[in-house]
Design brief:
This protein has helices at about 5-20, 30-35, 45-50, 55-75, 100-140, 155-180, 180-195. It is mainly alpha-helical and about 200 residues long.
Length: about 200
């Protein structure tokens, strides 16, 4: 029972494709979405006439925003985060609004990277705290205990290592995306259409 190729179909493809490219809403800004929205109900017609205007517009803007993101994360992770601030982060990305300014975008990246780094930091602290328990268990069994490198880190070293782990993760992500070509994103677009159909 294939879906009807109508405006509802078009809207679903539009939303799913935008979400596939930017699920965390850290690339597109509100003005991009406003520009894309003129295609919301015409994708079905474009498919029938082999018109790629929607895909081309979104792809071109996405590659531009990706380049901006590459520079942004490196700057954010250059120095330690301020963990004395009482902050909250909204990770309900489906209901998160797109930012409207560059300052808001920088802050979104800062919050997301801080959140990721804090998660890494927590793991290191937990490993260090568990080291004493592991040492005691080894001694009780009469076994030699060799502390892990992480168990000997200071708080400052753990913070730096946590940021480096976050940076490495993003370095690898962007290294992967650098290998993607237009045809790979077009395949994502086609998959979105097929899934909706």
């Amino acid at each position: 029972s294939p879906a009807d190729m109508d405006d509802a179909f078009s809207i679903a493809v539009y939303e799913d494709f935008i979400n596939a490219l930017d699920p965390l809403k850290r690339y597109f800004i509100a003005s991009d979405i406003e520009e894309f929205s003129k295609y919301r109900t015409s994708i079905d017609d474009q498919i029938k006439t082999k018109d790629l205007s929607f895909f081309n517009t979104v792809y071109k803007r996405f590659t531009k925003r990706m380049e901006e993101g590459k520079e942004r994360y490196k700057k954010v992770l250059e120095k330690p985060f301020d963990y004395t601030l009482s902050e909250t982060i909204n990770v309900d990305y489906d209901n998160l609004e797109y930012v409207t300014t560059e300052a808001e975008m920088k802050d979104r990246w800062r919050q997301q990277l801080k959140f990721s780094t804090l998660s890494n930091y927590y793991d290191l602290v937990e490993e260090k705290e568990n080291a004493a328990k592991v040492k005691k268990e080894a001694e009780d069994k009469g076994e030699a205990y060799e502390p892990s490198e992480n168990a000997t880190l200071s708080a400052t070293e753990m913070e730096e290592k946590s940021r480096n782990q976050t940076k490495t993760s993003l370095d690898e992500y962007f290294e992967f995306t650098d290998d993607l070509e237009r045809k790979d994103y077009f395949a994502t677009f086609l998959t979105t259409i097929v899934e909706e159909f």
